[in-house]
Design goal:
With about 290 residues, this protein is α/β, with parallel strands linked by helices. Helices cover about 40% and strands about 20% of the residues. The protein contains 9 helices and 12 strands. Helix 6 links the parallel strand 8 (about 190) and strand 9 (about 215).
Length: about 290
């Protein structure tokens, strides 16, 4: 039997170490638990050493496992760097461009622009990753990110598209008093404690409405849906709610929760024709804010 490790072996060890369990690693790899179990057993058999402690809480790398994980990360970084540099030599606007964005931005701004882009660039396929987590452009999880941020990561390049203003909105049929009193007198739809939305959490605490939530949700788009259904009032992006005739704005935009919208990519691929075409097109989103 060939007892030398190949990249698939290193990748298996790295995947299990980062996932923390076989089931999660199998899910990320698009594989099954038994297959992942056979793979790690084969790697350990090749080396003649145990790489993971099988604990009730998951798989914990041993000292030998940590060494393999460290090497695997170096290989992954070298591979990703090489792929970025080679893809940067592309001269034709064709191929796949992976775009990472949030569900709210896709629903409120991007969907029509994606259709327009497809009409202009027939040879480019957009692979849209919708997540409220921050994508890692250096690890090739995306070629372009369109996301709100106070400031971009230092290793990325791009530009600020504008300011996302936000305000309090209610369904037009929601029974509110003629004259609005303090915010804390209203029924609120707020972000879940687990939702990474520090500005909104802080503002709701400051105006004493955090304790008045009748419903909490883990995404802005979900909060928007709840407001449209008459559950309560919520802070929503103006680009999303201002054009909705079913909603009414209560007061002016809130400075404390305004956030910049950024269009970002990795410097190694910014001159690739397909990436440049997508960056140029989606850079026009600033006119929609």
């Amino acid at each position: 039997m060939n007892d030398k490790l190949d990249w698939n072996d290193y990748e298996t060890v790295l995947l299990i170490a980062e996932a923390g369990s076989l089931s999660k690693a199998a899910h990320l790899a698009g594989s099954s638990h038994p297959t992942m179990f056979r793979r790690i057993n084969l790697v350990e058999k090749k080396l003649g050493v145990r790489l993971f402690e099988r604990l009730r809480t998951g798989y914990q790398p041993t000292a030998a496992g940590e060494e393999i994980v460290s090497v695997a990360r170096q290989i992954a970084e070298l591979t990703n760097d090489t792929e970025r540099r080679l893809s940067g030599r592309d001269l034709r606007p064709s191929g796949v461009v992976r775009v990472a964005t949030t569900d709210t931005l896709l629903f409120g701004l991007l969907a029509p622009e994606i259709q327009h882009f497809r009409q202009l660039e027939h040879d480019i396929t957009l692979d849209i990753a919708v997540s409220n987590e921050i994508s890692n452009l250096s690890l090739r999880e995306a070629d372009i990110a369109i996301r709100p941020a106070s400031s971009p990561d230092d290793h990325l390049v791009g530009r600020k598209l504008g300011l996302i203003q936000q305000a309090v909105y209610a369904d037009r049929t929601l029974d509110l008093r003629e004259k609005l009193g303090p915010w804390k007198t209203l029924p609120w739809v707020g972000p879940s404690p687990s939702m990474a939305y520090g500005q909104l959490h802080a503002w709701m605490r400051n105006v004493e409405c955090d304790g008045k939530c009748v419903c909490r949700l883990d995404s802005v788009l979900a909060m928007y849906a709840a407001v449209r259904s008459g559950v309560g009032v919520a802070v929503l992006p103006c680009y999303l709610a201002d054009t909705d005739t079913e909603l009414k704005r209560l007061g002016n935009p809130i400075d404390e929760v305004a956030v910049d919208l950024w269009l970002l990519t990795h410097p190694d691929i910014r001159h690739t024709a397909r990436v440049r075409a997508a960056m140029d097109h989606f850079g026009k989103l600033s006119a929609l804010l």
